[in-house]
């Protein structure tokens, strides 16, 4: 039996993986969305399901009341030590955080700040079972610290709460000919060596490096162990190494795919006669390969569809900032009821914290949802969006005369406010079925049905990513500023169907 890459065809950015018994767990960057730190589970490294999130809210909470799309949780590391799961991550504006739990499904501790500082990113711990020592390595964000292309190492308290020294640069990428943007280190012990698996060369065009030393603080020797070569997988790098119970080695990494974000590939890995890891097909990513030697599993993927039972949304959804009470209302039936949140930023979805999002699918697909606008407030609106540096949405809006219109709007990346993508049309029942057909290159065609079958609306919209984040699908309800409750909107039968 074979599998085909990518094994996770959506924006599961900066993946890291760990095995505990017969189970594999994966986490990924979540940036400014809440809940954050998604947790995925697999028994065969190919079929993954989303089992929850480790971070309910970003802290400090006041910093994330409004969207900070490219900030927050960067490049986490997932480990299992002392019968607990541990996640370390860097917030580029605050420092290195850590949480832990007895089970991957929680409960997880609140974030603990291990080291405060600007530009401290991509941390990874190591508990050395041979010596009882603990270590941590991290990279640097030049935008905050003025430093890049270096990896800094620390001794760490074995309880993971603090670092025991000021740190030392253990790998300086400026001293390696041709290397730049060295970051994302993952730290391991193997065969008597300290190993750091770290990418370089930037997300679009980079490569995966391996570093080894007999002592944690170096000196390290380096080797490129995975690069694009003659494949169509650009920039294959940054991920985690995992070993199966039978002793097979595998490496999960990402590929940057524009608006689709960073999709996840699975590569075979072996150790060469000179002791270095060989990833993929002699250092080139594979498209198709024999599955890992693990018990066969049924086909699975992270959930996308949702009927919103009892008004609750599934694990696949996150808000664009820390949520507030009253945004979503639980009730006895199916369907998501969102309050029309009053805001001065109704003209720009990128500024709204109350957009409920999930990842854009990495292959052609059709997205559909039923929408009913209950809000009587003039200007109240709700819709289905494709959200990135540029955005477009289709939905319903209440007019000053009380009528409801089907509207379709967009904004370019440089625009400060949205404008119409098509002429408004009456939606006499205050209901519509909305549809987005996502084609090759994340080109999106918007359609609507107000009782006469689907009709296309406006021109094709080319989805765009944020700086580090892939484009998102979003549901929202809002209203202009003013006193009192502005009503609500209901979303039902959300579906994503492969095209």
From TrEMBL:
Superkingdom, natural source: Bacteria
InterPro entries: ConA-like_dom_sf, GH43_C2, Glyco_hydro_43, Glyco_hydro_beta-prop_sf, Glycosyl_Hydrlase_43
Keywords on record: Glycosidase, Hydrolase
CDD domains: GH43_FsAxh1-like
UniProt-listed Gene3D superfamilies: 2.60.120.200, Glycosyl hydrolase domain, family 43
Family of this protein: Belongs to the glycosyl hydrolase 43 family.
Record protein name field: Family 43 glycosylhydrolase
Organism of this sequence: Streptomyces cellulosae
């Amino acid at each position: 039996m074979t599998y085909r890459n990518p094994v996770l065809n959506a924006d599961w950015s900066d993946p890291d993986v760990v095995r505990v018994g017969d189970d594999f767990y994966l986490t990924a960057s979540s940036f400014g969305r809440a809940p954050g730190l998604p947790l995925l589970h697999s028994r065969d490294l190919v079929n993954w399901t989303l089992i929850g999130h480790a971070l309910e809210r970003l802290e400090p909470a006041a910093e994330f009341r409004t969207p900070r799309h490219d900030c927050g949780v960067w490049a986490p590391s997932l480990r299992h030590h002392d019968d607990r799961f541990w996640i370390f991550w860097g917030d580029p504006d605050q420092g290195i955080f850590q949480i832990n739990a007895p089970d991957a499904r929680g409960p997880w501790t609140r974030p603990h700040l291990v080291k405060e500082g600007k530009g401290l990113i991509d941390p990874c711990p190591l508990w050395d079972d041979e010596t009882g020592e603990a270590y941590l390595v991290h990279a640097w964000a030049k935008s905050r610290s003025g430093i890049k292309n270096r990896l800094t190492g620390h001794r760490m308290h074995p309880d993971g709460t603090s670092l025991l020294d000021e740190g030392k640069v253990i790998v300086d990428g400026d001293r390696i000919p041709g290397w730049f943007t060295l970051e994302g280190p993952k730290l391991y012990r193997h065969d008597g060596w300290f190993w750091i698996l770290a990418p370089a060369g930037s997300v679009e065009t980079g490569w995966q490096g391996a570093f080894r030393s007999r002592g944690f603080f170096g000196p390290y020797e380096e080797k490129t162990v995975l690069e694009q070569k003659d494949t169509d997988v650009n920039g294959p790098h940054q991920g985690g190494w995992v070993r199966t119970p039978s002793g097979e080695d595998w490496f999960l990494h990402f590929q940057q795919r524009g608006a689709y974000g960073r999709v996840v590939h699975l590569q075979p890995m072996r150790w060469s006669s000179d002791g270095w890891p060989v990833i993929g097909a002699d250092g080139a990513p594979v498209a198709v390969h024999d599955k890992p030697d693990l018990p066969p599993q049924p086909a699975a993927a992270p959930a996308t569809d949702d009927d919103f039972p009892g008004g609750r949304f599934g694990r696949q959804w996150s808000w664009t900032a820390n949520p507030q009470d009253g945004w979503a209302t639980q009730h006895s039936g199916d369907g998501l009821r969102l309050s029309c949140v009053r805001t001065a930023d109704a003209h720009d979805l990128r500024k709204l914290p109350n957009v409920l999002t999930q990842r854009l699918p990495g292959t052609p697909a059709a997205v559909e949802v039923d929408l009913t606008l209950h809000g009587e407030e003039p200007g109240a609106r709700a819709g289905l969006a494709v959200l990135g540096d540029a955005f477009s949405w289709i939905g319903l809006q209440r007019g000053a005369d009380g009528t409801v219109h089907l509207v379709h709007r967009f904004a370019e990346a440089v625009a400060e406010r949205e404008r119409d993508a098509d002429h408004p049309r009456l939606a006499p029942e205050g209901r519509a079925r909305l549809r987005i057909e996502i084609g090759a290159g994340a080109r999106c065609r918007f359609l609507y049905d107000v009782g006469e079958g689907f009709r296309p609306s406006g021109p094709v919209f080319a989805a765009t990513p944020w700086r580090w984040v892939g484009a998102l699908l979003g549901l929202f309800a809002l209203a202009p500023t003013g006193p009192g409750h502005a009503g609500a909107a209901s979303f039902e039968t959300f579906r994503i169907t492969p095209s």
